[in-house]
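User: Can you help me understand a structure? I only have the sequence.
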Amino acid sequence: MAHDPSTPPEVLAHLAGHANRSIRWAVAGNPSTPADVLARLAEDPEVWVRQAAGANPSTPAEALERLARDPDLAVRGAVAGNHATPPEALLRLAQTGSLSIAKILASNPSAPPQVLMELARSEWEAVRIEVAYNPATPASALLVLACDPDSRVRRIVVGHPKTPAEALAKLSADPDRYVRRWALAHPNTPPELRAMAAMAKIGAEG
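Assistant: Let's start by predicting it. Here is the structure, written out as tokens:
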């Protein structure tokens, strides 16, 4: 019942005060739980109840802001991956210096462009990979990632639908032959770049 989105709000509100933490956890993760109840559960003494509230897109912005400062890493990670988390809270989480938080942020399609740009320059390859996969990553960050030292990152960038022509021009001369081939096949690649590549191939064969 506590898990069920069809459970009436007044029942969920009652269950939120249950002594059993498993029931409170289920209520905290239920998207039908009223906002005021979720705000209360966001201050629950049990970490995993707060974590469930932090991951719930129905949790009010003010509560998510508080949870972004939670002392527990798992709670902050839940907030970092929540599509409803306010941009200001995501920006703050990006400054924590945590690899696990950075990876979650990098994959969140609601992350602000400035966060994704910052993460595109991360020292951690795993974070840069997540940014390259993120459908919300801006063209400016993809341009940075097109010069990434790791070919796995560049292979992802060359398949991203938002990769700009400037980045594709760089990738068309990439040391990785697969990256070069995919760059020329990308729909954003200018026709003149494809023509130049074709002429160079003919010249090399001749």
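Now, to help you interpret it: Residues 202-206 have pLDDT under 50 and may be disordered. The two ends are 74 Å apart (CA to CA). Let me know which part you'd like to focus on.
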